[in-house]
């Protein structure tokens, strides 16, 4: 099976696209220098204590993608200040670099004119900037080897409706954005490559989504990352300090 990367991509550059209301794909959003900086940071964040781990579900299964959390630790299905399903260490802090990227990502996806996506038509003009200047406080970083997958799920453990920001590094993947009612059709498949941004909020904030496939050997040569994909997911917890 051939991969979607081909010479046509050189002739017709990928463009920003709204995949569903509130769900926006911005190709090649991360500059190459920033990709390298994020990869180096992910390697540090993955070190113990509170490092990269295998996530196990209450039913005894386990996710094939491994994960490390910053700011708050996610476990099925809640948040904690320590790695309650791992080594018990305090979770690493949420860095300002990721907070800044989250704010810039939302603006890149929606533009300042798109306040109603997250706050409703009656939001005052200042609500957009004020909220996104302060709110993001969680990062879930998933590492997919070439065989890893992510089943259809919703990001529903937060107590805030701010958009989810997703950044991709390494191998490309097939990302599936579904509907808000169930895991089945209708859904839309999008190829996410190294450096791509995907934001989903507003009507798509609680849409089911997943990663059915990683494309081996499609990574970013400048990263020297090796096989696999990193996904940095940034969220607003809405939880009290």
UniProtKB/TrEMBL annotation:
Its cofactor is Fe(2+). It comes from the Bacteria. One of its GO terms (molecular function) is dioxygenase activity. It comes from Streptomyces monticola. Signal peptide: none annotated. This is Alpha-ketoglutarate-dependent dioxygenase AlkB family protein. The lineage of its organism: Bacteria, Bacillati, Actinomycetota, Actinomycetes, Kitasatosporales. SUPFAM superfamilies: Clavaminate synthase-like. Keywords: Dioxygenase, Iron, Metal-binding, Oxidoreductase. Residues 135-238 form the Fe2OG dioxygenase domain. InterPro entries: Alkb, AlkB-like, AlkB-like_sf, Oxoglu/Fe-dep_dioxygenase_dom.
């Amino acid at each position: 099976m051939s991969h979607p990367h081909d010479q046509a991509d050189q002739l017709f550059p990928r463009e920003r696209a709204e995949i569903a209301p509130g769900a926006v794909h911005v190709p090649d959003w991360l500059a190459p220098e920033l990709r390298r900086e994020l990869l180096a940071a992910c390697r540090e964040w993955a070190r113990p204590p509170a490092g990269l781990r295998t996530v196990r579900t209450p039913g005894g299964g386990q996710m094939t993608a491994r994960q490390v959390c910053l700011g708050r630790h996610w476990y099925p299905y809640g948040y904690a200040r320590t790695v309650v399903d791992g080594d018990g260490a305090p979770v690493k802090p949420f860095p300002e670099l990721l907070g800044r990227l989250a704010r810039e990502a939302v603006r890149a996806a929606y533009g300042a004119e798109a306040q109603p996506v997250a706050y409703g038509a009656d939001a005052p003009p200042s609500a957009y900037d004020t909220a996104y200047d302060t709110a993001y406080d969680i990062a879930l970083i998933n590492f997919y080897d070439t065989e890893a997958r992510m089943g259809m799920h919703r990001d529903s453990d937060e107590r805030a409706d701010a958009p989810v920001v997703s950044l991709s590094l390494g191998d490309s993947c097939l990302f599936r954005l579904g509907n808000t009612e169930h895991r089945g059709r209708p859904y839309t498949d999008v190829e996410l490559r190294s450096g791509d941004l995907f934001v989903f909020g507003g009507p798509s904030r609680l849409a089911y989504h997943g990663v059915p496939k990683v494309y081996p050997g499609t990574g970013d040569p400048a990263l020297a990352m090796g096989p696999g994909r990193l996904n940095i997911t940034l969220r607003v917890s809405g939880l009290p300090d």
